[in-house]
Amino acid sequence: MPKATVGLLHPGEMGVTVGAAAKSAGGRVVWASEDRSASSRSRASAHELEDLESIDRLVAAADFVISVCPPHSALEVARSVAMRRFPGVYIDANAVSPATARTIAGMIENAGGTFVDGGIIGPPAAKSDTTRLYLSGREAARVAELFHGSVLEPVQMNAPIGAASALKMAYSSWTKGSAALLIALRAFAISEGIDADLLAEWRRSIPDLPARSERTLNLNARNAWRFVGEMDEIADTFKAAGFPAGFPLAAKEIYQRLGHYKHASSPPSFAEVANDIRASETVDPRGEPTGRE
Known about the structure:
single chain; Rossmann fold; 2 domains; eight-stranded mixed β-sheet; 10 strands
C-alpha cells in the first residue's frame, strides 16, 4: 500500500513535531513555504519535511491535511483549504471550542472533504509518553494510523466531532487558567509589598508553590500571546454549555498584558510582570499592543 501524504499547516514549534511524528511513522509529510517565516522554514528543514512551496500544490498532493496554528487563525486556515475543494481528510488539531470545530467541519465537508476533530495535550512531541493527539469523528481511526508507533500518541475517542475539542478546552481551562492565576497573584503580592511573606507562608503550607510559580512564569510569559485566542475559545465553550465564562476571560486579560514578551530574549521577572499587569495596556492575539483601555 502506498504511504499517505500528509500536508502540514503550519510548522510552528508544536506543528513541526506533529509532522515529524507522521514522517517517522512512514508517511510522506509536505508543507508550503510560501509566505512563511524564516523560523518556520528552518524548523521544517531541520525535520526534513518536503516543501511544496504553495498551498495549492500542498492541497493537490495531500491525502490528509493537519492544521496546527494559533486558535485565532484556525477558521482562516480551514477556509483557505476548503476554498481549494480539498477532497481528503482535514484534521483541525487546534485549541478551539467544540462550536468552532463544528463550524470548520461544515466548511470542509461542504467543500467535499472529511473532517476529524483533534486536540493536542502535552508539549511539542519530542519524546514518547509526553504528548497525545485526541481524535473524534468518523475517520478518527484512519488519522490515528498516521501516528502509529511514533512519539505522538494518537487517542481515538469513538465520539462525534467536538469531543476532542471539548477535552482540550477542559484540560486547558486548568493548565493555562491556573498559570494565569498564579502569575497574577504573585504580581499582586509584589505590588502590595507582601511577596516575601507570601513565599514564606507557601514554603510552610504549600511547599512546591514558590518554585512552581517561577517555572510557570518562565514557561508562559513569552507564549502568553498564543493563549489569548485560546481563552476566548474556552470562554465560548463555557458559555455554550451554560457555565460562567469569567474565569477564562480574566485569564485572557492577564495574557493580553503579557503579550509584548513574545519577542523577549529571556523570561521576565515577577517585578517586571507586576508593572505590566497593573498597567492597562492590552495586545491583540498576535502580541502587538492595541493601546490603553
